């Protein structure tokens, strides 16, 4: 019997319908999880600010997080890197406990004063919830990969209110220099749906204002290039310092729960030694907002690097991205004072470009700039993000990220991962 050949567009309708349902479910679940996370972190921050004595319990909070993961979470300790590894080489189902454990660990970290973010938590919850759907829908390995990518996009988009950047982030973060277009439809659907959920529940994101973008010219172009180089180098320093200190802590402290305990002690010692350093704790949103409004001390970005590296490398939970926004905005603020550029402009460029370099995601970061600050910043953001990406080297905050294409062609450069060819 002759096999009927259907038009490609008819088959594409079935493909669209299938992924519209699956990706929308992922987006809705990730959006709900992110809304709960944002409300919980707001409560944790307000509670810590109202009861400053909670800071002194940070070592015990670290011990609690360490014990929880030691006895219940060894299988999900890889976090974002576990999700990236599973997308590259599907081997096992992401344990359902990933979502509640990272949520609890992140809230504890922020309640007692650790310097961490929230993107890692949202992405892990989105990925874990997506994998629950893969079991229910009985998806094969390739479709599972795609749905996990959609979960990453949904988590990122919903926690920052940037649906387009979130969609591209899920496609771009897996490998340096490569995009996974096979997942473009699910990632976009999941990111767009997830972004709508927090707003429907009355959860709103912080707004940053850049009132004036100067006319493009040689001086502005040169300053943006120079700033992009600095942003990339700082992103590289942050990634390497976090990985390096993490390896050192693991080598010196064999019992895992004691690592965040020691990290909590180190943070308290830094607070005691350095004056007016409370602003380096938690998410640091108020300081990020100030970076767009007025000149800040030139060293603020360094303080945030120090506190965040100690917090995350020792085993506290959260994420790197919001601290990178803080580092980038305050670094841009400092460079604006040196380069005689508008403070809000360079704060905005640093906000996205340090992240672009540290995460190796220049396209997602450029789109994020336009979603957050308006389309007028697009050209300058693109320059800053691409230059930062190039100068951050082949390291990054996600060690599971593979090399798809070297940043420059040279015989001594790292070779691309053959599994991505």
Mean pLDDT: 91
Shape: globular
**What low-confidence regions span 5 or more consecutive residues with pLDDT below 50?**
none
Q: Kindly report the spatial arrangement of strands forming the biggest sheet.
A: 1-2
Q: What's the order of the H and E elements?
A: HHHHHHHEHHHHHHHHHE
Q: Into which percent range does the helicity of residues fall? A: 55-70%
Task: Tell me the β content.
Answer: under 5%
**What does the main sheet amount to?**
2 strands, parallel
N-to-C span: 38 Å
Treating each run of at least 4 consecutive H or I residues as one helix, how many helices?
Answer: 16
Question: Roughly how many Å is the radius of gyration?
Answer: 21 Å
Give a count of the beta strands, DSSP E runs of length 2 or more.
2
Secondary-structure-based class equals mainly alpha
In words, what does this structure look like?
The protein starts with 7 loop residues before the first helix and ends in an 18-residue tail after the last strand. It is mostly helical and 421 residues long. 67% of the residues lie in helices and 1% in strands. The model has no long low-confidence stretch (mean pLDDT 91). α6 (141-160) runs antiparallel to α7 (163-172) and α9 (218-252) packs across α13. The relative contact order is 0.14.
What is shown here, in short?
The protein has 421 residues and is mostly helical.
Offer a few descriptive terms:
mainly alpha; 2 strands; 67% helix; 1% strand; 421 residues; two-stranded parallel ribbon; single chain
Helices and strands in order, then pairings?
Elements: H1 8-50, H2 58-72, H3 80-88, H4 98-111, H5 119-137, H6 141-160, H7 163-172, E1 175-176, H8 184-200, H9 218-252, H10 258-273, H11 285-291, H12 300-313, H13 321-339, H14 343-359, H15 362-373, H16 378-391, E2 402-403
Helix pairs in contact: 1-4, 1-5, 1-6, 1-8, 2-4, 2-10, 3-6, 4-5, 5-6, 6-7, 6-8, 7-8, 7-15, 9-12, 9-13, 9-14, 9-16, 10-12, 11-13, 12-13, 13-14, 14-15, 14-16, 15-16
